[in-house]
Write a structure and sequence with these properties.
Keywords: Signal. This protein is an alpha+beta fold. The chain contains ten helices and six strands. Helix 6 runs antiparallel to helix 7. The relative contact order is 0.13. The protein binds 2-acetamido-2-deoxy-beta-D-glucopyranose (5 copies). The site of one 2-acetamido-2-deoxy-beta-D-glucopyranose (NAG) has 4 residues, from strand 2. One 2-acetamido-2-deoxy-beta-D-glucopyranose binds next to helix 4.
Length: 314
């Protein structure tokens, strides 16, 4: 089956955008870096402002400015981040590429495209702490799927340091399996095919893109595949496309995520799209190990409850 890419661009007209509640438009002047406060005791209004600052800068094209900074000033140098559908990410460089760079090119093949608006639908924080819990519905412009406007729900816990920089975040993509199925469903309608046919088509599109990126950036010591055929064969036959929770495992979807970052640092990211997965696209954790991983330096429990003794994440 070969469907011209251009025919795909009409796919999303099959799905009428029905995004509600996107009250915050693209930020023409992104929020500046938070003012250093020299204490981690923030008021609720300050925590709300810090939360908004992150999401304002998450939107395209504000995220381009963060990406260009290499190490976003919104992040602490030793920031720790975790995303349920992928894995953990250490340090400002990686998180800048991952949270901002990944969603900053509307012309590049990607699952969800670029974030253009957000609405915070749940938020709570305690005064004189440095953390907040929120749910944010982000509208993505899925530019690879005919500019389909896709609402993506992201639950977050965020902790800021005394300089107003994010030092820890824990993010969950709510209903992500439903989202992936919706994208595949749009493809299936476009090709008049079954879900299986659409999945095969998506596999072909992603593999082509990853192999093109490999050819362009992963040369010399960074080369992962002998040639284009070896690349395509590996990506389409040796590994699964991946389930919705497997974007940090040995799957094609994981390599799709990391493909976006190769351009920023081929030496670091080429192994992630290669056969080894370079420690990021690997099946290194069982379900229980993932759930019980003791990753964060600092507890997410506010001190008042004194619950650290029962916290298995510490
Ligand atoms: C921040 O607070 C610490 C301790 O109170 C103090 O030593 C330091 O000089 C302060 N730094 C700034 C930039 O105000
Ligand atoms: C970004 O941060 C890393 C790690 O701290 C550092 O090695 C690198 O030089 C920084 N790059 C820029 C452009 O600031
Ligand atoms: C990330 O940080 C955690 C906790 O400090 C550490 O165990 C892990 O090895 C780090 N991962 C990478 C890829 O550096
Ligand atoms: C989505 O992206 C396309 C391509 O960049 C653009 O033409 C379109 O206006 C965008 N849609 C919205 C609602 O921003
Ligand atoms: C898909 O099926 C519809 C209805 O049978 C038909 O009108 C249309 O031409 C088909 N499209 C393609 C691309 O085969």
């Amino acid at each position: 089956m070969h469907i011209p890419w251009t025919s795909l661009l009409t796919a999303a007209t099959l799905l009428t955008p029905r995004v509600q509640g996107t009250r915050t438009g693209p930020s023409s002047s992104p929020s500046p870096s938070p003012r250093p406060k020299n204490t981690t005791q923030y008021s609720i209004q300050e925590l709300w402002a810090l939360e908004k600052t992150f999401w304002d800068n998450f939107l395209y094209p504000a995220n381009l400015e963060q990406t260009k900074a290499i190490n976003s000033t919104l992040f602490a140098p030793d920031i720790q981040g975790r995303v349920d559908i992928t894995r953990v990410f250490n340090g400002s460089t990686l998180n800048t590429e991952y949270l901002f760079g990944l969603f900053s090119d509307p012309t590049h093949l990607s699952l969800v495209g670029v974030p253009i608006a957000y609405s915070i639908t749940q938020f709570t924080a305690a005064a004189n702490t440095n953390l907040a819990s929120a749910t944010t519905v982000v509208t993505f412009n899925a530019t690879s799927f005919g500019n389909l406007l896709l609402p993506v729900t992201i639950d977050t816990w965020i902790m800021w340091n005394a300089a107003g920089q994010i030092e820890q975040y824990d993010a969950t993509f709510r209903w992500f399996g439903f989202l992936v199925d919706t994208l595949v469903g749009a493809l299936a309608q476009q090709i008049n095919g079954t879900t299986a046919a659409a999945t095969a088509y998506l596999t072909q599109l992603l593999a082509d893109q990853i192999c093109a990126t490999h050819d362009a950036y992963c040369t010399g010591a960074n080369q992962q595949y002998a040639d284009r055929d070896a690349c395509y064969a590996f990506l389409t036959q040796s590994i699964p496309l991946g389930k919705d929770y497997e974007l940090g495992r040995n799957t094609l979807l994981c390599r799709e995520v990391h493909e976006h970052m190769v351009q920023y640092d081929p030496a670091v990211h080429c192994p992630h799209i290669g056969p080894t997965g370079g420690a990021y696209c690997v099946d290194d954790q069982s379900y229980s190990q993932k759930v019980l991983q003791q990753y964060f330096r600092t507890s997410w429990l506010i001190p008042e409850v004194g619950g650290a003794g029962q916290d298995v994440w510490l």
